[in-house]
């Protein structure tokens, strides 16, 4: 009979682990290739919700991150009647609108209705940290509480910068890891792009852009989808082609949605809200399927960054912990040198970016001319530089500041 000899079995046994490994590696490569670029394929919100049910997404967990960078003060010039995008009034601002619309769509898939909410880009977090909406780090109980708590926090926030999504993405990875690998959706709502490089024409990424790219790549090892919602005037050119700057990931986990572009259309409000929800959730069914195929759903193999959120800047509590003096060197006045230069480029007053070269504009506020240089050689405007402990470009601690006057 043609049975295998013990020697043949021995050979097969010895080679099987390696063979299985090669097969597994080949299969995973095919899966990664399949989900490396997820395309938009649904025509309406009903198709998306049906697809979510078909792929087995019966429940998910939501995480919300809100951008409190200084540019929120002026990026509503055209899209929000010249008001700050965080302006709290009788009508909802763009942040509240975006939260509300998503909140009407996703609750059926959010099992416990508990939503961890965070802020970033303010004077306490800059581009290094995030703050929790509550001092005890507890999540908000549904979107109504998230909106209510947001309105309580806004009056006490000191807008700042630079802008980086890395801390928020890393915080989300930490939450996913602590949940034992449950599927999560991170909703980031921001008014602008990640703070860019002074050498953007050469294709060089800034420190903030590089950290954000690295965080997105690392996040693809977790069952985590990232939706970035852009509110305000923009510009959004970098975000639209951001995928081009991201190296190979386990799966395409990042989706950008231009909120104002959709909501400014001359269409009924209900149609615009439906279109926005569709754009935001378009890739979720495929992304969830990718986490299943890659075996990362329910897995605790990936190591998450260790992040602890700061306390919220809430009223007198914030003044005690996050007042302006917290970020100003105690020897600030002694460490500043004043150097005269041509008054024609004096940076004490804002000027239109269209008149001044981008390289002369402060990368933190994107408004004032640079008139302060740090000991590392990088520059910001006086208003931003006087409150920074670390250089926003290279992250070196600031030991000396020189005021250009």
Automatic annotation (TrEMBL):
GO cellular component: nucleus
Gene Ontology terms, MF aspect: ubiquitin-protein transferase activity; zinc ion binding
This protein's UniProt keywords: Metal-binding, Zinc, Zinc-finger
GO BP, sorted A to Z: protein ubiquitination
Keyword check for Zinc-finger: yes
Record has Cell inner membrane as a keyword: no
Residues annotated as signal peptide: none
Listed transmembrane segments: none
Annotated PROSITE patterns: ZF_RING_2 (PS50089)
Chain ranges of the RING-type domain: 362-395
Protein known as: E3 ubiquitin-protein ligase RGLG2 isoform X1
Organism: Elaeis guineensis var. tenera
